[in-house]
Amino acid sequence: MNTELLVSDAAHFRIDYEINPYMHTELQPDPAAATAEHAAIVAAHLAAGRRVEHVASAPECPDMVFTANAAVVRGDRAVLGFPPPERKAETSYFQEWLVDRGYDVLEAPFPFSGQGDALACGDLLFAGYGQRTDRRMHEVLAHELDYDVVPLRTVGPRWYDLDLALAVIGPHTVAYCPQALDDPSLARLRGLGLELIEVDLGEATRLALNLISDGTTVTMTRGAPKLAAMLRARGLRVMELDTTQLTKGGGGVRCTALTLDNPPPRGSR
Ligand code: ARG
């Protein structure tokens, strides 16, 4: 699970605008600390045996460190994100990188937060909507990437992306914050027969769920000791990382990595 990741860097990470409730232009990241924080996250991926690809950040793209929003990738196909206007300039850099690597790259016809609102779990795709992703994207993702889409609506701007509200821990295990999803979404999620781990509102708002699990190692923020303990109790190795600087942009560990190796559908492409 999830062993090849596309990251960028924090060289141009700034708060130039406020497009989620965590961002405040008067609360700027410390450049050296942000670079060190990002480097430590990348080092943890490598220590966990994950492969890491790098796309250089561009000066006019202060949020480019959050590569998860660039696209969602399955097999050799990628559907690009369709970000808010403030982040539009990023798309061409990611598009170019993906095309250069030989991916079949499709443009999104509707607003779409990329992997931020599209978390793969085998053939399932937990697909967020209600904030940055237009629900019509779900049909596009089902059709273009052959996923069984599970639509999940997040309930407010704190959950502007689904990857803050839910995390795939293993092929049959998902962690989530119940207060972040509407009732039909909770019913849908609870009806899937998966093992579910509940994360409380306090830890979830400290971006506890913005983690990466490869089924063996979990890399996550240091701010969520209860979730870390629950994961360790399940036999997972947990690496807790500082996310103080990234949090000023409203992102954590998961936001800084686009998964490149979601397995393709069986017997296809
Ligand atoms: N400042 C960025 C934004 O608001 C943070 C994105 C975090 N990405 C994520 N996948 N949740 O767009």
UniProtKB/TrEMBL annotation:
Q: Give the matching Pfam families.
A: DDAH_eukar (PF19420)
Write down the Gene3D superfamilies for this protein, in alphabetical order.
Answer: L-arginine/glycine Amidinotransferase, Chain A
Q: Which domain of life is it from?
A: Bacteria
Q: What is this protein called?
A: Dimethylarginine dimethylaminohydrolase family protein
